[in-house]
Amino acid sequence: MLFNLRILLNNATLRNGPNFVVRNFRCGQPLQNKVQLKGRDLLTLKNFTGEEIKYMLWLSADLKFRIKQKGEYLPLLQGKSLGMIFEKRSTRTRLSTETVGFALLGGHPCFLTTQDIHLGVNESLTDTARVLSSMTDAVLARVYKQSDLDILAKEASIPIVNGLSDLYHPIQILADYLTLQEHYGSLKGLTLSWIGDGNNILHSIMMSAAKFGMHLQAATPKGYEPDPSVIKLAKEYAKENGTKLSLTNDPLEAARGGNVLITDTWISMGQEEEKKKRLQAFQGYQVTMKTAKVAASDWTFLHCLPRKPEEVDDEVFYSPRSLVFPEAENRKWTIMAVMVSLLTDYSPQLQKPKF
């Protein structure tokens, strides 16, 4: 019987190619995971399909359950090393990646600040990428310019992960989506209401929300809209997936009917000289209970932190509807999942969540 099954499988593989996936004929489900991310870069979520992003979230939930709930020790990254380049400081990105993320899985992270490494200054980006490729298994870089990440990825022979850039912040969005999946039970059909700057967080949402069947309503002040190239691609994603994309300059219009109210800093690192101008431009964009009154009855609130009172008042930020602290914790589980998926062949043991 087993011999005959092997013959059938071999014949099927010859007919269908090496990517043939055996199915359980009784339940119609794959017996192996078709998503393979090992060796990939994570520069932006536009480079990933909906199924690939869902896989990273599934793996995040799996690691969270096995380590936090069951108390298991999983040295999945034992013998692996990670270079961490931080041109911009961060509490959550460093802590989630370094001590409680990569190290918890048995790996060895190496933290590099601007005092240790100057991208493209003392050494070219090409040379830096090649040196790091010879000494580490992956690099997470938190940088000012997306173009620097693109060059690192082009020249490196190891995975490069975007820890934040001027254009995208993909690892933050993974944490946001895991938080929403845990709260709502599914992401499909949710309406995300963005109220704030047309920045890297919004860009990353625009590159991924439609792939989950989520709608997006974004309000930004005039002159602070999202990047035109991002808007163009986001419209294509919305059309492909049958979702709604609305861009406005009216915060209440964006909040109306939204399940998730989302904002972020109005003044990113490197924009300090624009503070006075930005505070003036963002008048009326503070998220308050007045904003929430026009949202859906099950509304929740997200902010990637750190938060300033002018962005969201205390009544909303510390309310039971606020998910900001579970969101912050999930930075840990999602970055762990990213590293495991890019560096190992591990597959989740937990049943796949509903997305």
What is the helix content?
40-55%
Range of strand content: 5-15%
CATH class of the largest domain: Alpha Beta
**Count of DSSP-assigned helices:** 13
Order of strands, main sheet, comes to 7-6-5-8-9
CATH topology group of the largest domain:
Rossmann fold
Backbone shape = globular
Mean pLDDT: 89
**Per CATH, which architecture of the largest domain?**
3-Layer(aba) Sandwich
Characterize the main sheet.
5 strands, parallel
CATH superfamily of the largest domain: Aspartate/ornithine carbamoyltransferase
Low-confidence stretches: 1-31
What is the helix/strand order?
HHEHEHEHEHEHEHEHEHHEHH
Radius of gyration: 21 Å
Alpha-beta content class: alpha/beta
Cα separation of the termini: 38 Å
What labels would you give this structure?
single chain; alpha/beta; 9 strands; Rossmann fold; 355 residues
Write the layout of secondary structure elements.
Elements: H1 2-16, H2 50-69, E1 81-86, H3 92-102, E2 108-113, H4 125-135, E3 138-142, H5 146-155, E4 160-164, H6 170-184, E5 191-195, H7 200-206, E6 215-219, H8 228-241, E7 245-248, H9 251-255, E8 260-263, H10 275-281, H11 289-293, E9 300-303, H12 314-317, H13 324-343
Parallel strand pairs: 1-2, 1-3, 3-4, 5-6, 5-8, 6-7, 8-9
Helix pairs in contact: 2-6, 2-13, 3-13, 4-5, 6-13
